[in-house]
Amino acid sequence: MDFHLTNEQLMLRKMYRDFAENEVKPLAEEVDETEEFPMETVKKMAKLGMMGIYFPKEYGGAGGDVLSYAMCVEELAKVCGTTAVIVSAHTSLCCAPIFENGTEEQKRKYLPDLLSGKKIGAFGLTEPNAGTDASGQQTTAVLEGDHYVLNGSKCFITNGNVADTFVVFAMTDKSKGNHGISAFIVEKDFPGFSTGKHEKKMGIRGSSTCDLIFEDCIVPKENLLGKEGKGFKIAMQTLDGGRIGIASQALGLGEGAVNEAVKYTQERVQFGRRLSQFQNTQFQLADMHCRMQAAQYLVYAAAMKKQNHEPYSMDASMAKLFAAEAASDVTRRAVQLFGGYGYTREYPVERMMRDAKITEIYEGTSEVQRMVIASNLGVK
Amino acid sequence: MKIIVSIKQVPDTSGKVAVNPDGTLNRASMQTITNPDDMNALEAALKMKDATGCKVIVVTMGPPPAAGMLREALAMGADEAILVSAREFGGSDTYATSQILAAAVNRIGVESDDIVMCGRQAIDGDTAQVGPQMAEKLHLPQITYAAEITKDGNTVTVKRMLEDGYMTIKTQTPCLITCIKELNEPRYMSVGGVFEAYSKPLTTFGYEDLKDDPLIDATTIGLKGSPTNIFKSFTPPQKGAGMMLEGADKATCEQLAGILAKKHII
User: Fold this and answer.
1) Is the CB of residue A68 less than 8 Å away from at least one CB of chain B?
2) What's the rounded mean pLDDT across residues A176-188?
3) Residue-by-residue DSSP string for A309-362
């Protein structure tokens, strides 16, 4: 496999890094502390094309590739897990399913504003009783003349309170189980649609997470995404792509923690020596770096396969499983290397540790990833 | 209308500085950045492009790897790039460099409503000479230390920032302006810009391309032809933390005077 980055990818990495260091890092602590959505940062990212990286220019995208998108999420996550997931959820969970499943009219109508970042996107699949078991959808959609009427609610929706456009799943025919689920494009101003309160979370605290509520919500018939009954398939395909985004977020969080630990251990002196001079520190950092490097290979390989239109479902699951668990482990080890200071909010590693945990949970828990991988191995 | 922006790749001074045995900088072994003041010049040009749709051409003199910096300028929004590169040009001081760059600008061609923009000075040499020397050689009016630039037709109004105040100057195009950091905040490359950067034209001007320009005198370019000779290069020893005295009372002043007297400074 060729792991050489193209000139464009190398240049983009530099640009993402400059942007993350200068525009995102200085706000990361405040965003975490106040739980305020970093809207100004999103506007800046939009201007630079970071909200539609791998989509064609004809729909308002930047004309890039999937790996360039993964690298963007990675570089943002090195300094701020919140900012990274905003880009990931918007891109992978809203722009991608519309681009991949939408009619030409739907693409022309929704993608230019989403890809240019004028509007923010979100994805509504999870329900209080349909988490890992996504097939247990209780939200219903009933066709009445020229529109569907949606009733029900969604929970834990990333970007929920700030999004303008949602890809939402609902049962159009309960008797068909998975095959009775359909996908819809919902605008925030549709009658009968509202959002719930901001969830208070352990990490990624600045990202918006809330319920979506549908009370006789009127969705025009032309906003059905894909065919009726194909919603579950669309959701699963979308999550395959989303896992590359979350794997990139986990990757960045772990790498960011390694960077911080390398810096800190060379400054902190105990017993008359820098922490970095102790063999335990060196071995810890070596292990941490190895884990993140391995995660990077898995994430980049999955991104390249998606870009090349090769089957990548198992690769995305492996990347997310490994990167998420590596990020949780590496950020925890970073806190340990920092000692008491690491446990305070004076240093960013405790935030990184809190942010990393969610990567093992959302867009498919680590257990779901293992199910996907085992199933791809033919293990029953 | 077009704007020609002269930019320079310089060592990232946050890293280690390497020096060749002949006293010149070993640029190949160092991390590089685009000279900060030049980024302000480029931003000023790109802002004019945003407003008027004019063309922006970036030009640099340097070794072949400087093409990477030019691609970044293209990713920010410049339309064309010129790399002036030849063994004969290597080791040029400001006098030689300004001849070569002026010849390059001549080859690009300066029309009646064009502007040449430069950064005030590069962070490696800190001379602030190349821009003004280029203007002299090109017989263009020059305005240095630009903190504000407006263009109305062929009239350019520039607010210069000097140590003790501002000076506003009007001139006619074509002209040359050197820019300072107070002028603007340079933009980032954009994702779309990066993907376009490698399909935009990047042309190399070698010695053969420029040697017949009347400005080029083979005996006054390159290391040999440069009138500046580097006597010695060294990294200055690190200074100590110094001593701080606080207070505006007589006792503190006397203490300060005592320290200075002891060191034979007063």
Assistant:
1) yes
2) 96
3) T---HHHHHHHHHHHHHHHHHHHHHHHHHHGGGGGSTTSTHHHHHHHHHHTTTS
| Global ipTM | 0.91
Find the closest chain B residue to A50 by CA distance: B191
pLDDT tens digits, B20-49: 777 777 766 778 899 999 999 999 999 999
> Mean pLDDT of all residues in chain A?
97
Asked whether the beta carbons of residue A64 and residue B71 sit closer than 8 angstroms, the reply is no
Of residues B71, B190, B197, nearest to A49 (C-beta): B190
Q: Which residues lie below 8 Å from residue A307, measured CB to CB, with a gap of 6+?
A: A54, A65, A66, A67
Torsions phi, psi for B153 (to 5 deg): 65, -125
Q: Active-site residue numbers of A?
A: 363
- pLDDT per residue over B87-142, tens digit each? 988 888 888 899 999 999 999 999 999 999 999 988 887 888 898 999 999 999 99
- Distance from the B196 Cα atom to the nearest Cα atom in chain A, whole angstroms: 9
* DSSP-derived secondary structure letter, A50: T
B194–A12 C-beta distance less than 8 A: yes
Judge contact between A126 and A133, C-beta under 8 A.
no
Query: Does B245 touch chain A if contact means CB atoms closer than 8 Å?
Result: no
- Partner B contacted by A62 (CB < 8 A): yes
Q: What is the pLDDT of residues B230-244, one digit of tens each?
A: 777 777 777 777 888
Q: What is the distance between the alpha carbons of residues B262 and B256, in angstroms, rounded to a whole number?
A: 10
- State the pLDDT confidence band at B18, using cuts at 50, 70 and 90: confident
Residues of A in contact with B46 (CB under 8 A): none
Distances (CA, A) of A346 to A48, A335, A340: 31, 12, 10
Residue of B nearest to A9 (CA): B194
Tell me what the mean pLDDT of segment A15-20 comes to.
97
A127-180 per-position pLDDT tens digit: 999 988 888 999 999 999 999 999 999 999 999 999 999 999 999 999 999 999
Specify the pTM. 0.91
The pLDDT of residue B29 is 73
Quickly tell me which residue has 């260091």 as its tokens: A21
Report the side by side order of strands in the sheet with B55-61.
B165-172, B155-162, B142-152, B175-179, B115-119, B2-6, B55-61, B80-84, B202-205
In B99-236, which ranges are E strands?
115-119, 142-152, 155-162, 165-172, 175-179, 202-205
Which of A48, A50, A76 has the most B C-beta neighbours within 10 Å, making it the best mutation to test the interface with B?
A48
* Chain A contact for B72 (CB, 8 A cutoff): yes
Angle between helices B36-52 and B66-76 (to 10 degrees): 30
The per-residue pLDDT for A1 is 67
Chain B residue numbers touching A17 (CB-CB < 8 A): none
CA distance A218 to chain B (A): 37
- Alpha-carbon distance of A264 to A251, in angstroms, equals 20
CB contact under 8 A, B192 and A62: yes
- Are the beta carbons of A138 and A152 closer than 8 angstroms? yes
Task: Look at B191 and A7 and tell me if their CB atoms are within 8 Å.
Answer: no
- The burial of A377, by beta-carbon neighbours within 10 Å (0-12 exposed, 13-18 middle, 19 or more buried), is given as exposed
Chain A neighbours among B 185-244 (CB < 8 Å)?
A: 188-195, 197-198
Query: At residue A227, what is the residue type?
Result: K
Cβ separation B191–A11 shorter than 8 A: no
The reply to whether A143 touches chain B by the CB within 8 Å rule is no
